[in-house]
Fold Etoposide-induced protein 2.4 homolog.
Amino acid sequence: MADSLKIIFTGVGRGLKDSVVGTFKIYNIDKDLSEKSQQQQSEQRRTVLSMRREERQKADQLTGKGEPKKNSEPSVRNRILVCCAWNGGVFGLSIFMFNRAVLPCLQFLIHYFTGGTAATIWHWMGPLLTWTFSALWIIPIFILSKIVNALWFQDIADAAYRKSRGRPLLPSLQMLIADLLFSIILESVFLIQGMLAKRLLPIPGIGDLVSILHMCLLYSLYSFEYKWFNMNWPLQKRVAYIENNWPYFVGFGLPLAIMTSMADSFVISGCVFSLFFPLFIISANEAGHIHEIHDMPLMLFTPAAKVTNQLFPKLSRRATPSSGHTTPSSGHSTPAGTPKKQLHIR
């Protein structure tokens, strides 16, 4: 029992450390990418064909004044700064200013000019202004942010992956689409599962603990999914790996789960998530090996996987590789003949 608790707390502590320390790796990513690009260019110069290609590229880069064009591709840090500026500066700050500045000022002006009838007027005017602001600003910006963030998150993850591991190993287009759709459905069902656990468990405090546990694992899956997808890991293998190493991933997703749970609304929680999530993508990409597999897997994804399989059986079959992987309903999958001990991050 003592050894099991030691393994759990050690795994949680290591995951927490990797999630925080890994965010500081953004200062080295752009430098490493630049050095790697220069090294590849120096290797290409060894052939006559590459030398001619380089001369043509130099000629094409010259403008009318004879000055070379600058590389317009933004750095990883610039991508993260733009993402944070949009989610925190535009989206989050606008909500904060409306609730903390605009509404109180309007309420004060109404009370100043109307006197005794201010409470009656504000009783219907306050909710009307909030609803109008939500309909005309929050909802459209929230939907736009989801689309833009998806592109930015993928861009950040791909740049970080190229720095550490090179070219992604992507599956076929059909498998890619099926895996993406099945992953979205499974994660949505898992999110609902965590919300139901919080509401339905009768013991005080246990429901909140189980809900936080769900969110930690889900945020860890979100963070590592970009890396594992580029490594061509199928969804079944990704979920099984988290279930077998759940102490580490509970610790990794704990900071983001706590920050989002402190928000008083779903929209604010989504804004906080989008603000800090790019840093966790970097941390997940830079995370080291997980050498120990926990002997007692926490199979929280298995009920959600079974529900998803029952609802979308054809999609689950398309998302399951044919090279000896088990079905996702079991919640575990390893390549044929490969023991679980070999499922470490490479």
Notes: The chain has one domain: 9-45+75-335.
